[in-house]
TrEMBL record:
Species this chain originates from: Marinifilum caeruleilacunae
PROSITE patterns per record: RUBREDOXIN_LIKE
Coiled-coil regions listed: none
Domain of life: Bacteria
Name assigned to this protein: Rubredoxin-like domain-containing protein
UniProtKB keywords: Membrane, Transmembrane, Transmembrane helix
Location of the Rubredoxin-like domain: 7-41
Organism lineage string: Bacteria, Pseudomonadati, Bacteroidota, Bacteroidia, Marinilabiliales
Pfam families: RUBY_RBDX
Length: 199
């Protein structure tokens, strides 16, 4: 049986966009420059690592905590300024978002550790250490949100504490986003072991 040949990859030299040969068109879909700026691209990672990284699990996972946090903070702020405007719906949204928030942060944290290990073979590089510190602060802040929400979200003090806790987590999320966007399209070549399995 004939083995299926891997399709060639091409990279746009000015912007770094990578695509399959069959997807090449007259212009780069990312920056709009003509096709002539593309050159053949050789994937340096092992097929297993590359396949997992191209699923973009971590970039997708980081959107869940941000979304739930923004819902909680928006609902609380609207309720603080307009206490008679659908209080049951707004406080219910804030409570629900606060309760699921730590689960979403943990998912993003775990996927980030796996992504870092796959991409760089180590999670102890300077940028990744910085990301781990901010992620840990965000994770700790997220553990307080369900307790504050269930303690009595109708209480002004609990709302203020939840807003403070959420703001700390949001600042961490912004710092993490800025650090992460520079790492998206880079990584070490070869294979790597995770949980005893080679990728």
């Amino acid at each position: 049986m004939k083995e299926k040949q891997e399709e060639k990859l091409y990279i746009c030299k000015p912007c770094g966009y990578v695509m399959k040969e069959s997807e090449l068109q007259d212009v780069c879909p990312a920056c709009g420059l003509p096709k002539k700026v593309f050159e053949q691209y050789k994937e340096r990672m092992s097929p297993g690592r590359s396949k997992i990284l191209h699923l973009d699990l971590h970039p997708i996972a980081v959107h869940f905590p941000q979304t739930t946090l923004v819902f909680a903070l928006q609902a609380l702020l609207i309720n603080l300024f307009f206490p008679n405007f659908y209080p049951e719906i707004l406080l219910g949204t804030a409570k629900f978002s606060a309760v699921i928030f730590p689960f979403t942060v943990f998912g993003a944290f775990l996927s980030g550790m796996i992504d870092g290990k796959l991409r760089f073979k180590s999670v102890t590089t300077p940028i990744l250490k910085k990301k781990i510190i901010y992620s840990t602060v965000m994770l700790i802040a997220s553990f307080f949100t369900p307790f504050l929400a269930w303690k009595g979200i109708d209480d002004l003090q609990s709302k203020i504490l939840l807003l403070i806790c959420g703001t700390i987590a949001l600042i961490c999320g912004i710092v993490l986003g800025h650090a992460g966007k520079r790492l998206m399209n880079i990584g070490m070549g070869g294979a790597v072991k995770i949980w005893g399995r080679k990728f």
